[in-house]
Each structure stands twice: as C-alpha cells, then as structure tokens.
Design goal:
Blueprint lengths: L4 E2 L2 E2 L3 H20 L7 H14 L2 H21 L6 H45 L6 E2 L2 E8 L10 E8 L2 E9 L3 H21 L3 H16 L4 H6 L2 E8 L5 E7 L5 E3 L5 E3 L22 E4 L5 E5 L1 H4 L11 H5 L2 E2 L3 H16 L7 E7 L15 E2 L10
Antiparallel strand pairs: 1-2, 3-4, 4-14, 5-6, 6-7, 7-8, 8-11, 9-10, 9-12, 12-14, 13-15
C-alpha cells in the first residue's frame, strides 16, 4: 500500500514501471549473446503485457512498438528477416501488443468504475452514519469507523450523538450480518434513535423504542432474518451540567471511563440484557446504571471489532488493560492511539469492522481547541477516583 491513486488508475511501484523496459533490454542482450536457434520473443511479448495493468494507454502502446521494432531490428541484424520463423515471431509480438492495449483499456475502465463506487460508498456512509460534531453541549467528541477490509466504507457498526432536552444521548451498536441488509438496519436504528432521543424522557424509553423499530423491520425480512436478526447496543445519557452518566447495555461490550489520573473503569451492567431485536425471547424492563463522569473523564464506547481483535497467537485485544495508566489530551488523540495500537496488535489483520465513540467532559477553563501534547503514562500508584 502507500502508492497514490492517479486519475482513474493506480501508481505502481517503481520496479513494476521499469520492468517492461528491462524485459526489452534483456531480450536484446539475450538474443545478441545466444545462437540464432534461441529466440528472445518471450521477453518482447511479456513487456507490453506487464505494462498494460500499470501504465497509461500511451505507455503501453510505446512499449508494444518498442518490442515490435526490437524483434524486427534483430531479424535484420541477424539477416533472418525473410525466414518464416521471423514472420511468426513478429506476428506473435504484434498480437500480444494489441492484446495488451485491450487489457489496459479494460483495466482503466474497471478502475474508473471502482473509483466511482468509492465516491458513492463514501457519500452513502456520510448520509447513513454522519460524523458527530467535535463539540456538543460542552462535551468534546470524536468518532471513528475503521473497516476491516481495505476500501470498504459501510458495514453493520453504528454510532450517533444527539443533544436533547434530557442531555446528550449516545448510541453505539453492532448489527448482526453484513452487506446491504445490515446497512438498512443501521439506518432504521439511527432514525429511531434520533426520534426517540428527543421524545422519550428516559434512556429506558429510548431502548424500548429501538426494540419496537427493529420488530417492525423484522416483519419485512425473510423468515431466517426475522428470527436471527439482532443488534447489540449501548445507550448512554449525559445530563446537562451534571457529572453523571447513565447507561443501558443491550448485550454489547462494556464501555470504559478513562479518568484524568489514568484510572480506567469498566462499566459492567448490573443486569444482563438481550440484544435489541430479541424481545420475543424474553421481556423485562430495561434498567439504566448510573456512573460518575467528572471533569477530565472520557467515556469510550466501541464495538466488538475492538475487543475481539486478535494477535498472531489468538489473544484478544483488551482495551481496558491497554489504556490503563495512559493520559490523552482529548478524545481525538485517544482514538488515534487506540486505532494504531489495534493495528500493531493484529499486525494489520483485523477481521471485523470497528466503530469507536469517545466523549470527554472538559475540565473547568479548558479551551475548546486543545494544545496537542504527547500521550503519556500516568504516575504509578494513583488512587482510584471515588464514586
């Protein structure tokens, strides 16, 4: 990776770009130093084929012309231009050069379609999963969607932040499945969340509205999806002007709170609950749990693409352990470090998408635009914040 995209194409490594020239030069050298019964035609035929996927149409054409003139020039030099094999070799190189031009054209058309698909995918992601504002109701916010597959933009992970009369409300979730059906479910959940967050007086009421929205969506699916479709989710609420956090967890990985002294709390629910969309298996009221969120603390919500990321030995990534004792200037820096750390842990071999949402309550007098400082380890032996 690391090679820039060109207009409608791919910028190949330098060795690939010069390889067609090396093949032609190698063919000339081979023909010069070997007896006439040996032929260098494979070198000349390979040159335009190598150029076709990585070079422009003009460069491929010039490579084909150079290969053809090389064969013709060698036959004149060896005084074998009138032999039947010479015509066969020349025809072979001409045919391969023409095929290379066709391949070049097809590859470029495919890349143009792929580039167009990327633009559409990016636009669709921004429409379905817009990035929240960096500042909402005095809170500092950062969000990140990391796709497991290169050039993938849309999946079944979701996040949203909404400023409401009841406080800032958040959701992070993971829809079972992949593809367009998962994206449709994401759109349903986010639409229901934005409406319910403004209208429901409690976080439990928001969860109930999401459950009903998924139940309605399930009636449109085929029988298997209607039975097996579900979404794990965490709903959170930060009331205006209060150092408290309320959480409803529906079968989702536990959020973390990172304190200003480097301590980390794992917000385990007091009562386990099934994921959204599984209401037919059991009905009981949601119970929100209250936790402190003092100034300088950061709430981290994430999907299982983070907690189930494995290293080469199959060891899961433990965000609580990896983040303990570290201090971050703000939520954006936290997510930067977290994403880089997961990539190192998996060596770039992540198998699931990862949605991250970090929300910080700034300390008194802290400016909106924070000065970037290094991420550091907190001093050992810091006392855990009292609750």
């Amino acid at each position: 990776m690391g090679h820039r995209q060109q207009a409608g194409g791919y910028s190949a490594p330098r060795i690939v770009r010069v390889l067609p020239t090396l093949m032609i030069v190698g063919g000339l050298v081979f023909d010069y130093f070997t007896p006439p019964r040996f032929t260098a035609v494979p070198f000349f035929a390979a040159a335009p084929l190598i150029a076709a996927p990585f070079s422009s149409w003009i460069a491929t054409l010039l490579t084909g012309i150079a290969a053809t003139l090389s064969v013709l020039g060698l036959r004149y030099y060896n005084e074998t231009v009138s032999e039947v094999t010479s015509f066969t070799e020349l025809f072979t190189v001409l045919t391969v050069a023409g095929l290379a031009l066709l391949i070049n054209r097809l590859v470029r058309l495919s890349r143009e379609r792929l580039a167009s698909a990327r633009v559409i995918a990016e636009a669709a992601q921004r429409a379905v999963l817009p990035a929240p504002a960096a500042r909402i109701a005095g809170l500092h916010i950062a969000a990140r969607y990391e796709a497991a597959q290169a050039d993938a933009f849309i999946g079944g992970d979701l996040f949203a932040v909404q400023d409401t009369p009841f406080g800032v409300r958040l959701v992070v979730g993971d829809v079972r499945g992949k593809g367009l059906e998962a994206v449709e479910t994401v759109a349903v959940i986010l639409g229901a969340f934005r409406e319910a967050a403004e209208q429901e007086g409690s976080l439990e009421g928001v969860a109930a509205r999401l459950e009903r929205a998924l139940a309605r969506e399930g009636t449109r699916r085929d029988e298997l999806d209607a039975v097996e479709g579900f979404t794990t989710a965490v709903l959170a609420e930060i009331p205006h002007g209060e150092g408290v956090l309320r959480v409803v967890n529906r079968g989702h990985p536990e959020p973390l709170v990172l304190y200003a002294d480097g301590d980390v709390d794992i917000l385990e629910p007091t009562q386990a609950a099934l994921p959204l969309g599984m209401g037919e298996l059991g009905a009981w009221p949601d119970r929100s749990d209250a936790h402190p969120l003092p100034p300088g603390a950061t709430l981290l919500l994430y999907t299982d693409g983070l907690s189930e990321a494995r290293d080469a030995s199959g060891v899961f990534y433990d965000p609580g352990e990896r983040l303990a004792g570290r201090l971050f200037p703000g939520p954006e820096e936290l997510l930067d470090v977290l994403v880089d750390d997961v990539r190192r842990h998996t060596r770039g071999g992540a198998t699931d998408d990862m949605a991250l949402l970090a929300v910080s309550r700034p300390t008194e007098g802290q400016p909106d635009r924070r000065r970037i400082v290094p991420v550091v380890r907190a001093l050992a032996g810091s006392e855990r914040r009292s609750k």
